[in-house]
Amino acid sequence: MDIIQTFYDNIATQYDKLFSDWQATTHEQAALLDRLFCDNGFDRSAKLLDCACGIGTQSIGLAALGYDVTASDISENELAEAKQRAKANDVHIRFEKADFCTLSDTFDEQFDIVIVMDNALPHMLSAEALASAVKSITSQLNAGGMFVASIRDYDALLADKPPYSPPYIHKTASGQRVSFQTWDWNDDHYHLTQYIIDDENTLAVGKFECEYRATRREELTNLLLASGCHDVSWKMPEETGFYQPIVIAKK
After folding, report:
1. In whole angstroms, what separates CA 210 from the centre of its chain?
2. Does 245 lie in the same domain as 172?
3. In sequence order, what are the residues at sequence separation of 6 or more whose Cβ sits closer than 8 angstroms to the Cβ of residue 105?
4. Rounded (5°) CA angle 182-183-184
5. One domain, residues 86 and 192
6. Do 246 and 183 have their domain in common?
7. Angle at 172 between CA 166 and CA 176, to 5 degrees
8. Could you tell me the residue range of the domain that residue 190 belongs to?
9. DSSP 123
10. Quick count: other Cβ atoms within 10 Å of Cβ 159?
11. d(Cα 186, Cα 182) in Å, to the nearest integer?
12. What pTM value is reported for the model?
């Protein structure tokens, strides 16, 4: 099991602590994505694949809006968490364990929309691996389908290569939760350590480690064009309200 799968398996039951209110976030992000889909000619009858679903942060909110959602992930523990949360939210989602680098091994159908949110693509640690992932993902799109992904603003981050991210401090009824990341850079790669400090009824500290390759927007744009997509555009946070830049492409 590689470091990426281990990271998500280990953080699965703690992942919601990265949010002030995970439940509210599912609805906020679904509304934001719904606007993007509608602005690009899709409605809630669209057949959608979330191929890096995690604990269901986007999938559950979109299913609640009426989208036909299939969700997949490489982490069995995150899928188990997502299934429980989908049941608690009374939404139907088809869940599958799948690596987004080899989606055709799991899915023999295409989708109207495929999403890859929350900086999942930069887990690909080489240009070749990223190209393979983009080809795999876009191959699951219907003709005329829509690809949507979000990544960190690496064009800005690579200029300074900051050693950490600002902490998030979430006040709760029992105390507070603090989460932050440290980034150990090696050229355009970095080793991420995620800390979650739960200072509520009792103090608990979680530490989770992973690897990323900083992906510039131009690189991802070129790979999407090479994979048969067109009309590739980027939407920045000040335009969408999402916390990362979002790329949109049509097939």
Report:
1. 15
2. no
3. 98, 99
4. 120
5. no
6. no
7. 45
8. 156-210
9. G
10. 8
11. 13
12. 0.96
